[in-house]
Design a protein that fits this description.
By secondary structure, the chain is of the alpha/beta class. It has helices spanning 16-30, 43-54, 71-81, 94-102, 117-122, 130-134, 138-145, 150-153, 155-172; strands spanning 33-38, 59-64, 85-89, 110-113. Helix 4 (94-102) links the parallel strand 3 and strand 4. The two termini are 19 Å apart.
């Protein structure tokens, strides 16, 4: 989109999984508590356990799976945990909507949505091979591995079309 709109961004890419792990590493170094929210039952705990092995200073404030109906109870658990960082892996767009809806109720310093990162940390899923990552084709690797994602992927052409129309309006006005 930045290229189409001729609004270049600084070169570089940080995958959500890498950002998530860097935040965990920083939290461990600073002694800040991290709450893991999302994934199937047991995934958040397994993910937290593996991250604790990798970063021994990590303070796991709490974990909860993504299969909940009572937001208030989960928010209370997060707030009672004293976590500074809330990692949310509920999938797009649920995690973003959840964060936005509850931003005023949560007593964390930082929260972020990281999709399937817990599955990767827990060893349930794998990242794409480096060649796919270098070629910016990680999405293709995930689509090949998980064909059910095709519906979600079909939204990308709509996005590009919207950007193209936006560019036309932007440059003609």
């Amino acid at each position: 989109a930045s290229r189409i709109l001729r609004r270049p961004l600084r070169k570089g890419k940080v995958a959500g999984t890498e950002l998530c792990e860097n935040l965990i590493k920083l939290s461990a170094a600073k002694g800040k508590g991290v709450f893991f929210l999302g994934g199937k039952p047991g995934i958040a705990q397994t993910s937290a356990f593996h991250m604790k092995e990798r970063y021994p200073g990590l303070k796991i404030a709490g974990c909860h799976d993504g299969y909940f109906k009572d937001d208030a109870a989960v928010i209370k658990k997060i707030n009672d945990s004293g976590a500074s960082l809330l990692l949310i892996c509920l999938g797009v767009p649920r995690q973003e909507k959840w964060m936005y809806s509850h931003r005023g109720e949560l007593n964390v310093k930082l929260m972020g949505g990281f999709g399937g990162s817990f599955d990767i940390f827990a060893g349930v899923s794998r990242r794409a091979p480096r060649v796919f990552i270098r070629l910016n084709l990680e999405w293709l690797y995930r689509l090949i591995r998980e064909p059910r994602r095709i519906g979600r992927m079909m939204k990308l052409p709509k996005f590009i079309i919207g950007v193209l129309f936006s560019r036309k309006r932007y440059h003609s006005g």
